[in-house]
Design a protein that fits this description.
This protein has no helices and 12 strands. The protein is mainly beta and 134 residues long. The chain has one domain: Beta Complex (Metal Binding Protein, Guanine Nucleotide Exchange Factor, Chain A), CATH 2.170.150.
Length: 134
């Protein structure tokens, strides 16, 4: 996994957690300690997932570029998602580039979800127009 922002690699790791939800491409949770120093900055706000619990947001920063609320994490996830502690998910559409095994990721449509689309997954995916009721 490689993530670039502001022309810089801000995260590179061989370890991630892949979370699948109905009608979603995978969302990858990357180890917090795989990010370069200063890339993750606390941001205002939170949201609630009925499965994972309360999420907190992060701004991602590299050079003079800031991607506001482009990442999130679960400080105290539900017991079924306890492995997410210490990991961060990103909206790939807010990064310069995200790669899985050298393949550039396409962001999940719609901007609300954080799925990473590669050639190994196929839709339809939630987020496209008309998918709100799925």
């Amino acid at each position: 996994m490689v993530v670039r922002l502001g022309g810089m690699v801000i995260c590179e790791t061989d370890h991630s957690l892949r979370v699948l939800e109905t009608f979603h491409p995978p969302t990858y949770y990357l180890p917090r300690d795989a990010f370069v120093d200063g890339a993750l900055q606390p941001a205002d706000g939170s949201s609630f997932c009925e499965w994972k619990g309360m999420a907190r947001y992060l701004d991602l920063r590299a050079g003079d570029r800031v991607a506001a609320r482009a990442g999130w994490f679960y400080p105290m996830p539900t017991s079924g998602f306890a492995d997410l502690v210490g990991h961060v998910a990103l909206y790939p559409g807010l990064m310069d580039d995200c790669q899985v095994n050298g393949e550039r990721v396409q962001p999940q449509p719609g901007g609300f979800y954080g799925g990473w689309i590669t050639s190994t997954v196929s839709g339809p995916f939630k987020g496209i127009p008309g998918s709100g009721g799925w």
